[in-house]
Write a structure and sequence with these properties.
By secondary structure, the protein is an alpha/beta fold. It contains 15 helices and 22 strands. Helix 2 packs antiparallel against helix 4, helix 4 runs parallel beside helix 5 and helix 9 packs across helix 10. It starts with a strand and ends in a 5-residue tail after the last strand.
């Protein structure tokens, strides 16, 4: 075990958390601050196949005892953890701000508290679950949820704390033990979560966190036969690799992948609200999978909409994520910033029109100006591929049918946003837009009991509410001949 590190007066361990103990590795990788790239935050323990095997062993050993608890008994642990998250909002927010770059104010007021809500929500849902009971053909029938076994949770670098809790909470509530692998670009808030897990008194091995690079650690974890569930959020190429490993062991696998969501604006909409929400898609520098990155506006109101949009976009402020005046954070890593710029440069070369932005805010920094592109046609790369940066496209349509066709014209289907003043159109177009979630006249309002996931290459499976608890369970139908037992 290595010494804990000090980050702005906050103590964080750089090591794994396996079997209730901190465990180190001889090799490390570094993590840096996105909005001050010259600042190295820590050298993080770099796990390998041996680390993966150690974690799988610990999770397997702890599984029988955890699975034997009632949902209410497990829920008590989850509620204690939620209490500790709420008591440590300031620490978690600062660590995540420095490590991932998200705005500190947003983390303090909304994001970290959502992590506590995730644990409370699933603890209560699991405890309140009623088994389905019915009679059929002379038998009494009952559907039983059985804990499945150790679950592997692989999370992305954007919103790492919230997404980790969103995925780990249902696995734990269902009676599974957990191995969490956070992204190597933003591992620190997961390490703080491990401290809170220990403080909450979870039995050793119930919750394990291992850090490392995907090729070295992830492959060993996904191929381990002791893993009984895999839940992944990340890129489509990585999901294909994980899916093949899961298939080898016949392991259920859920994947929440990228998005290329439409923001469809009709002439009868509140254009000011729609334009404000469209400019809001630059929040977190576009590093949000559900962002409505394809703005599609009815042609008759395009000029009025664009004037309002540009006014709202002009109000964005790039800077230090700790500064309350900042509205646009830096991109997480220079490699990612270069990738985003590559999309813009290829769009320019292909004949797309850069309406605004299109370059770095300042040389050598991880900020890219809020960018709007009018594509040459609907097949442009910047329309059809996920950029995951502050880059939006702008297209117009003449009638509802054309608007819906454009909305549904990519291989993705994670979400969609529709702005209209017509109730009939809200229902009609809301049903017609292809996506796992479609918002009408709003965005990012989430009910934690609702299903969440993607269509097409945006993913497989559903998270949220009972959908997640069912995924993390083996379902059994118990049938007893009526009258045969007393």
């Amino acid at each position: 075990m290595r010494d804990r590190i000090d980050i702005d007066g906050l103590s964080v361990s750089p090591d794994h958390f396996i079997g209730g103990q901190r465990v180190t590795s001889p090799e490390t990788f570094e993590t840096r601050c996105p909005f001050d790239w010259s600042r190295k935050l820590a050298d993080i323990a770099r796990g390998d196949a041996q680390t993966a095997a150690h974690a799988a062993e610990a999770a397997s050993a702890a599984f029988p005892g955890w699975a034997a608890l009632t949902a209410a008994e497990r829920g008590a642990y989850l509620h204690r953890l939620a209490d500790l998250i709420e008591a440590n909002v300031e620490k978690l927010a600062m660590v995540e701000c420095l490590d991932m770059g998200m705005l500190l104010e947003s983390l303090q007021l909304r994001v970290i508290l959502r992590g506590a809500a995730n644990f409370r929500n699933y603890a209560d849902l699991a405890t309140a679950h009623q088994e389905r009971v019915w009679s059929s053909r002379g038998t009494a029938n009952r559907v039983i949820r059985m804990p499945a076994g150790p679950a592997l949770i692989i999370t992305p670098w954007n919103a790492p704390f919230m997404l980790s809790t969103w995925k780990c909470a249902p696995a734990l509530a269902a009676g599974n033990t957990v191995i969490l692998k956070p992204a190597d670009w933003s591992p620190l808030s997961a390490s703080v979560l491990a401290d809170l897990i220990a403080e909450a008194g979870f039995p050793a091995g119930v919750f394990n966190i291992v850090q490392g690079l995907g090729a070295e650690l992830g492959n060993a974890l996904t191929s381990d036969p002791r893993i009984k569930r895999i839940s992944f959020t990340g890129s489509v190429p990585t999901a294909r690799v994980i899916g093949k490993a899961a298939a080898e062991n016949i392991v259920p696998f859920t994947a929440e992948l990228g998005g290329k969501s439409p923001l469809l604006v009709f002439a009868d909409a509140d254009l000011d609200a729609a334009a404000k929400k469209a400019a809001g898609q630059f929040d977190d520098s576009g590093q949000v999978c559900m962002a409505g990155t394809r703005i599609i506006v009815e042609e008759s109101v395009k000029d009025e909409f664009l004037a309002k949009f540009h006014a709202y976009a002009d109000a964005h402020v790039m800077g230090d994520s700790r500064d309350p005046a900042t509205t646009m954070s830096a991109l997480i890593h220079p490699v990612h910033a270069d990738r985003v710029l590559g999309f813009i440069e290829r769009a320019r070369a292909a004949g797309d029109t850069i309406v605004r932005g299109g370059k770095r805010w300042k040389e050598g920094a991880n900020w890219i100006e809020p960018t709007l592109i009018v594509p040459k046609d609907n097949q442009s790369e910047v329309v059809q591929s996920e950029v995951f940066g502050p880059v939006l496209t702008f297209q117009t349509f003449k009638d509802e049918a054309e608007g819906v066709a454009l909305a549904n014209s990519t291989a993705y289907g994670l979400s969609g946003i529709v702005y209209t003043g017509s109730e009939e159109r809200a229902h009609r177009v809301g049903r017609a837009v292809r996506g796992g979630t479609v918002w009408v006249n709003t965005f990012l309002v989430r009910d934690l009991t609702a299903p969440f996931g993607g269509i097409g290459i945006s993913g497989i499976g559903r998270e949220g509410g009972d959908y997640a608890l069912d995924f993390h369970s083996d379902l059994k139908t118990l049938q007893i001949l009526e009258g045969s037992v007393r």
